[in-house]
């Protein structure tokens, strides 16, 4: 084998040994890096300007909070008298109207008490009439005594004249001494009879005055004992009426705790009625937000239950008189130990548009998001006028008095009324009156209160 045929065993030189390192793209393009930073800075400036313009044009004109909750009138149904439950007229989630029966208590004891009170009134009326009737015989007795006194006075005057006429005749002997002494005795006897008759007249007049002192200036209908007995009848009739618990407002039943056959005491809670047609929102704004809030400012609200699909419209009707912490059950004692500042919140009452509530009902306690337009600064921060109408009122507890007064008038007039054996039904007029007063009037609406406060 020759040298030309021998394989070449020498290792080739590495290419990397002779190649130079390549320069980086950034180091070779400083203008591109500067352009990128300029774009980022410009974007930040534009974003800041946009945010500033939005804050100046929009955000600064509103105050918002999500610490807001729906409130309403939660009417607690409690009995005014104790008794045993024999009927329950409504359950949880039921809708009730004003005047609708909710709970009926046993009426047996109340009926017995009413019958006793009416019997006592009838007896008192008869005794009083007897007292008035006794005045006539006493007046006749006084007249008879006075007539006797007049007759005896005339007799005494006659006998005295006889004595004076016989006195000069005794000197001439025309009238004997015995006859004269007899005339004197008759005159003395007549005078004593007049004295006795005068005493009898005074005694009879005293009896008449004593009788008239108890009856003068009144009649049998307004005699004190009759009035007291009539008051007992009213009390017993009211106790009978109060065995029937009816709803003073329209709404929905919640928290029913009463059971059939339960013995309940006066004042114990049985159920509640919530009026979902007259709700409001209590928005708890921070203390740093209060400076721009005024009564009468318009608000937009969103409920978590509907989200941003539904917007409610409302009006501020009042700002709270203190923070929530100030009226809490256990207020903070910031002077004891270490202190950490906590931003305080003040409740702001916001009325809701009834039309919005009718379309999208709410519940008490639901969360709300509130946005208040603070551009209108014409209102006041605190109410400056007093309320012109009650917040709520009902004639529920007056419905039974006309019927009680009618029975009392008949008993005083002398009619024999049969005792009641059952609770009288509530009249339709009374139910309508209760319903009419339960409906809020324009003067009672929160919007009207806001206008009055301004």
TrEMBL record:
Family: Belongs to the membrane fusion protein (MFP) (TC 8.A.1) family.
Stretches of the chain forming a coiled coil according to its record: 187-214
Sequence intervals crossing the membrane: 36-57
Biased composition (Low complexity): 10-27
Every Multidrug export protein EmrA/FarA alpha-helical hairpin domain range: 109-243
Example GO BP: xenobiotic detoxification by transmembrane export across the plasma membrane
Subcellular compartments: Cell inner membrane
Region span, Disordered: 1-32
Topology in the lipid bilayer: Single-pass membrane protein
Name of the protein in its database record: Efflux RND transporter periplasmic adaptor subunit
Keyword Membrane: yes
Cellular component GO terms, alphabetical: plasma membrane
Chief location category: membrane
InterPro entries linked: EmrA/FarA_HH, MFP
Keywords assigned: Cell inner membrane, Cell membrane, Coiled coil, Membrane, Transmembrane, Transmembrane helix, Transport
Signal listed as a keyword: no
Superkingdom field: Bacteria
């Amino acid at each position: 084998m020759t040298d030309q045929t021998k394989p070449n065993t020498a290792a080739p030189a590495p290419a990397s040994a002779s190649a130079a390192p390549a320069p980086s793209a950034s180091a070779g393009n400083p203008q591109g890096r500067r352009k990128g930073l300029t774009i980022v800075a410009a974007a930040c400036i534009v974003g800041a300007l946009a945010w500033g313009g939005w804050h100046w044009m929009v955000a600064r004109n509103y105050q918002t909070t999500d610490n807001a909750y729906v409130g309403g009138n939660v009417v607690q149904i409690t009995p005014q008298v104790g008794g045993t439950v024999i009927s329950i007229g409504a359950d949880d989630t039921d809708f009730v109207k004003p005047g609708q029966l909710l709970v009926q208590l046993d009426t047996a004891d109340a009926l017995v008490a009413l019958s006793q009170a009416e019997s006592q009134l009838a007896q008192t009326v008869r005794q009083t009439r007897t007292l008035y009737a006794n005045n006539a015989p006493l007046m006749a007795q006084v007249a008879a005594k006075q007539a006797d006194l007049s007759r005896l006075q005339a007799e005494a005057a006659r006998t005295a004249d006889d004595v004076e006429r016989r006195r000069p005749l005794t000197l001439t002997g025309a009238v004997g001494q015995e006859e004269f002494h007899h005339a004197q005795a008759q005159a003395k006897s007549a005078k004593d009879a007049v004295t006795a008759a005068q005493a009898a007249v005074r005694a009879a007049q005293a009896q008449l005055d004593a009788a008239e002192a108890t009856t003068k200036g009144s009649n049998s209908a307004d005699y004190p004992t009759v009035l007291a007995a009539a008051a007992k009848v009213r009390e017993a009739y009211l106790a009978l009426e109060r065995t029937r618990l009816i709803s003073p407002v329209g709404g929905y039943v919640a928290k029913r705790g009463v059971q059939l056959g339960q013995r309940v005491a006066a004042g114990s809670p049985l159920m509640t009625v919530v009026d979902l047609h007259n709700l409001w929102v209590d928005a708890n704004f921070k203390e740093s937000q209060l400076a721009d809030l005024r009564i009468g400012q318009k608000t937009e609200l969103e409920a978590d239950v509907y989200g941003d699909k539904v917007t409610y419209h409302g009006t501020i009707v009042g700002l709270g008189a203190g923070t929530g912490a100030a009226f809490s059950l256990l207020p903070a004692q910031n002077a004891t130990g270490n202190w950490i500042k906590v931003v305080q919140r003040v409740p702001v009452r916001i009325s809701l548009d009834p039309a919005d509530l009718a379309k999208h009902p709410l519940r008490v306690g639901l969360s709300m998001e509130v946005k208040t337009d603070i551009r209108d600064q014409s209102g006041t921060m605190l109410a400056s006028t007093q309320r012109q109408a009650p917040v709520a009122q009902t004639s529920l507890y007056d419905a039974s008095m006309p019927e009680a007064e009618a029975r009392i008038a008949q008993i005083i007039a002398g009619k024999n009324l049969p005792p009641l054996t059952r609770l009288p039904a509530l009249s339709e007029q009374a139910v309508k009156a209760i319903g009419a007063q339960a409906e809020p009037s324009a003067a009672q609406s929160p919007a009207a209160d806001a206008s009055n406060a301004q």
